Automatic annotation (TrEMBL):
<feature type="active site" description="Proton acceptor">
    <location>
        <position position="593"/>
    </location>
</feature>
<protein>
    <recommendedName>
        <fullName>DNA/RNA non-specific endonuclease/pyrophosphatase/phosphodiesterase domain-containing protein</fullName>
    </recommendedName>
</protein>
<feature type="domain" description="DNA/RNA non-specific endonuclease/pyrophosphatase/phosphodiesterase">
    <location>
        <begin position="148"/>
        <end position="380"/>
    </location>
</feature>
<feature type="domain" description="DNA/RNA non-specific endonuclease/pyrophosphatase/phosphodiesterase">
    <location>
        <begin position="505"/>
        <end position="752"/>
    </location>
</feature>
<feature type="binding site">
    <location>
        <position position="623"/>
    </location>
    <ligand>
        <name>Mg(2+)</name>
    </ligand>
</feature>
<keyword id="KW-0479">Metal-binding</keyword>
<dbReference type="InterPro" id="IPR044925">
    <property type="entry name" value="His-Me_finger_sf"/>
</dbReference>
<dbReference type="GO" id="GO:0046872">
    <property type="term" value="F:metal ion binding"/>
</dbReference>
<dbReference type="InterPro" id="IPR044929">
    <property type="entry name" value="DNA/RNA_non-sp_Endonuclease_sf"/>
</dbReference>
<dbReference type="GO" id="GO:0005743">
    <property type="term" value="C:mitochondrial inner membrane"/>
</dbReference>
<keyword id="KW-0255">Endonuclease</keyword>
<dbReference type="GO" id="GO:0004521">
    <property type="term" value="F:RNA endonuclease activity"/>
</dbReference>
<comment type="similarity">
    <text>Belongs to the DNA/RNA non-specific endonuclease family.</text>
</comment>
<dbReference type="GO" id="GO:0006309">
    <property type="term" value="P:apoptotic DNA fragmentation"/>
</dbReference>
<dbReference type="GO" id="GO:0005634">
    <property type="term" value="C:nucleus"/>
</dbReference>
<keyword id="KW-0378">Hydrolase</keyword>
<keyword id="KW-0540">Nuclease</keyword>
Amino acid sequence: MEVFKFILVLFTIKNNFIWIESCEITINEDLAGHNQPLLLHTNLKDGFLYPNSDDETIQINPGESIVLACPGGQFDEDSISTNDNVRAECTQENSFVVENKDFTGSLKDISCSRNPQTKVKTTLDKCSRDGVKGTIGFHVNAKSKHNYQSIIDFCHNAKIGHTVYAHTKIPAQIKNHQKGVARVEFKQDNFFKGISVRNVYRKTEQVKTIANIVGSMELAEDFIHDKGEYFFAKGHLVAKADFIFGSQQLATFSYVNAIPMWQNVNGKNWARLEESVRNYASDRNRDLEVWTGSLGILQIKDANRKSHDLYLHRSVVYDSISKAGVAFITINNPYLKSLDDEYVVCKDVCDDLPWFNYKSTWRRDKYDSGYTYCCKVDDFRNITINKDLAGHNQPLLLHTDLEHGFLYPNSDDETIQINPGESIVLACPGGQFDEDGISTDDNVRAECTQENSFVVEDSDFTTSLKDISCSRNPQTEVKTTLDKCSRDGVKGTIGFHVNTKKHNYQSVIDFCHNAKIGHTVYAHTKIPAQIKNHQKGVARVEFKQDNFFKGISLRNVYKKTEQIKTIANIVGSMELAKDFIHEKGEYYFARGHLVAKADFIFASQQLATFSYVNVIPMWQSINAGNWFSIEESVRNYAIDKNRDLDVWTGSLGIMQIEDVHGELQDIYLHRNAEGKQSIPVPKLLFKVVYDSIGKAGVAFITINNPYLKSLDDEYVVCQDVCDDMPWLNEKSTWKRDKYDKGYTYCCKVDDFRNVFPDLPEFQARKLLK
């Protein structure tokens, strides 16, 4: 019998059975013309009732109920509850009976005393820098724990009065939204304390504000126009048109859901972008998650050509069913003339999205309308080496298993990808974190949440890595061991000590140093395959002695005036010394890096090379000449072959020059009061490069003497095989046979080992080709 009851509901009049029509609510016809109540599932957890995807109707079977709600008000009809919500049961032919009341009618006859009122709530959850999470929604006085219907969630920084991002879900049925819903005044909702935001957005106030910034009313009026679209509009983060119901659409009119956008950007490409996303949801019948906010800084110049900040806009769209997404970037600067690198945060993939332009006639490349491009979500989420780290005092980025050391970017771009829920270790060796609320220890774990946002363990701190810095640059620790190397040498390392229980020392350079003569025999590092994606523009720093070279001021030793004095004492003539060491130009002894600054990815690693234990005296004309070309060629090889390379750099012998009597003298840069010499000038420089996967290697030899006139046998330690390595000259215009730039030749590794047996053991079966 139960089965037959079910069939009677489904079929029309047949065989004299009575068919009971279901209730169909047509969005734009069957709801009150104003102050419409919310339409909710009886299980409030399921939220709003939405229409079908193919038409504007919501179908409710006879006997089924819905919840009608008037948050912040009550029902207009006397016969309906004074509570703000009631259940209404479908009876027949679009007629509803309200629970326990005599009211029976259509929904068009039920309205609220006012538009449903939103409630904006903030939480204790942190986001971004100094931001807190919050929601815009409707509070319904029901016993259910789901009595708050959130429609927008956001991250807001109250300190600067800025919403970092807002998020909503655009329903697949969005084309069936309520039309003709009149705009209302924006509300402040207890945000922006002490500020009248309504006043802030007036054109006259914008002109005054800009004038104060740029120092000129005339210049301000060139930016903000009295007429037309060149002014800052209240740009919705979540658009009014992203919602179905009038009540939801009006909820977007909160200043916490607005950021300043140039109106010609807001009304053109930004509006087209919003429209394209809604069309995608409709055409594919998919709910879409959308995050919209600001990213990066644009600048305008004042009367004195000093720059001041404006912002970019972003929108991230995600289909949670197919796990597909895209991030749209729009430049909020209609005065832009060209697309400089500073505006580009990813590779543009818009052309891979045919739906993006399918129903739109917009020009996304028009600057005055808001130049727009597209990113893969992973590219947008990723840490970009040169953009997403603090501008100074950057912490180390390490694997949580510290044994695996530093996190490196991909080989083909500057990004480090960390999936949501995964963690990394941030460390400030020798210091602490600059931000309040982060551990006073020198390292913390940070978990990726979404959109380049990280939550720091044991704190309320959630932010991007750009906002996390150390109190000082990570400090290196130089350690020596008891292991012997070469003659009178001991092994040591340059690295970072992190206060963890194990694997707490991250070595970046290891070396062999002879303290008796103040000379580093060789230094070794591994050049990563991703080296082209290194941090750029890292300023040089002072070299440190790190408890080496006792009793010597190396800073003083490398001054040109001191070099002239030292050479004069060796050769017995100030005039002859000045012929060797020139006060101007490149003929002097430079602090030649063994491991180059450019051999490392991160700023902290690059700065670690500025230790005198990583230095030998090189003629500057050679250091900046062929030696530099060798370093660059080796890095290019690592990039082109996508191989990590082990590199040992050091020297052979001591350079000699003739004194006033024509006798050869060894050149040292320091002599103490007892006449003991130290800091020898090398005769030959070497760089051994090894690919451990291909078991291939080569040794480069550069003669450290720009005054050489011919290649005597004393400078040749092996048969030259440079011509067997075409890659050596592919990306370089160097002339390896120029003596003043450092004559250079190449050895097989085994041949080189015959003259330098201190080279650590490894098997190079072939030449590096």
